[in-house]
Design goal:
- It contains 9 helices and 12 strands.
- By secondary structure, the chain is an alpha/beta fold.
- The protein has 2 domains: 121 residues, Nucleotidyltransferase, domain 5, CATH 3.30.420; 144 residues, 2-Layer Sandwich (Nucleotidyltransferase, domain 5), CATH 3.30.420.
- The strands form 3 sheets. A 5-stranded mixed beta sheet has the order 3-2-1-4-7, sandwiched between helices.
- Strand 1 and strand 2 form a beta hairpin.
- Helix 3 crosses helix 9 and helix 7 crosses helix 8.
- The radius of gyration is 18 Å and the shape is globular.
- The mean pLDDT is 94.
- The structure holds zinc ion.
- The site of zinc ion has 7 residues, from helix 4.
Length: 286
């Protein structure tokens, strides 16, 4: 059985095909045209998938979407980064336009948690907390029973945790959110440089990890995860980021807490969500 995996992110989309043995046999990634928004992206996906489908049957599809997803209803709730997605029935679109009946969708951070938790840096670690640190910030919680989604599919949404009450305005209407202070989109707007360039500067990193640790500390105190895996573009920064971050977490987390501080970068690079989508398809035979 071949599985089509779709990762819809804030600045790009990636699609792949996994064969019956779980090997990735096709992969294509393209930058998101913000002006074109949803319709542009769906047209691109349709063109690529039709070409692939002519060469191999695609029996099922799983999607990791870069924004809140109502998992029970299998609907996109909204995207704060790209317009036109609110309450869109993406699964129905896949059935109609791509002709694949078996479709399942989750938030990209939940998919990323599954991907890293089963195939990557989180293998064998439960509970696992996965955080995507890229254009935006998203979180996914994986317990021994699978993804923990909460009562309304909003568990793990720590991007809008307030870490600086007097901080700048966030797109969500609040101030000083974790995402507002730490994600790639805002770093670029605030500093005029990409996150990748900024992380080369140790003085920037020293200040940055304070904010990053404020958000992660909340997660450690609440969940006591066996491991935290950081994926997404900024998560690929390596020791330049992770060594100061671990030191700052040790400083911030309350001294009587014996909760472990195990925090590592993702092992699947840009493919955490795709591998997670494969697992999602395996778990949810719809
Ligand atoms: Zn916010």
């Amino acid at each position: 059985m071949n599985t089509l995996a779709i990762d819809i992110g804030g600045t790009k989309f990636t699609i792949a095909v996994f064969d019956y043995a779980g090997a990735m046999v096709r992969r294509e990634s393209r930058a998101t045209d913000r002006e074109g928004g949803k319709d542009w992206m769906l047209a691109q996906i349709k063109t690529i998938v039709r070409e692939w489908a002519a060469a191999m049957p695609l029996q099922r599809c799983a999607i990791g979407f870069g924004g809140p997803v109502d998992f029970e209803r299998q609907m996109v709730a909204l995207s704060t980064h790209v317009g036109g997605w609110a309450d869109f029935d993406l699964c129905l679109w896949v059935r109609r336009e791509l002709g694949i009946e078996s479709v399942v969708m989750d938030n990209d951070a939940n998919a990323g948690a599954l991907g890293e938790g089963v195939h990557g840096a989180g293998r064998g670690f439960r509970p696992l907390f996965y955080m995507t640190l890229s254009t935006g910030i998203g979180g996914g919680i994986l317990t021994a029973d699978g993804v923990y989604r909460g009562a309304d599919s909003y568990a793990g949404e720590l991007g809008h945790l307030t870490i600086r009450p007097e901080g700048p305005d966030c797109l969500c209407g609040s101030k000083g959110c974790f995402e507002r202070m730490c994600c790639g989109l805002w770093l670029e707007r605030d500093y005029g440089k990409t996150a990748k360039e900024l992380i080369e500067d140790p003085d920037f990193v020293d200040a940055y990890v304070v904010n990053l640790a404020l958000g992660l500390k909340a997660c450690i105190m609440l969940l006591n995860p066996a491991r935290m895996v950081i994926g997404g573009g900024i998560g690929k920064a390596g020791d330049k980021l992770f060594i100061p971050l671990r030191n700052e977490l040790r400083r911030q987390v309350t001294s009587w807490s014996r909760a472990r501080l195990d925090i590592v970068p993702g092992a699947l690079g840009d493919d955490s969500v795709l591998y997670g989508a494969l697992e999602l398809a395996r778990l949810h035979r719809v």
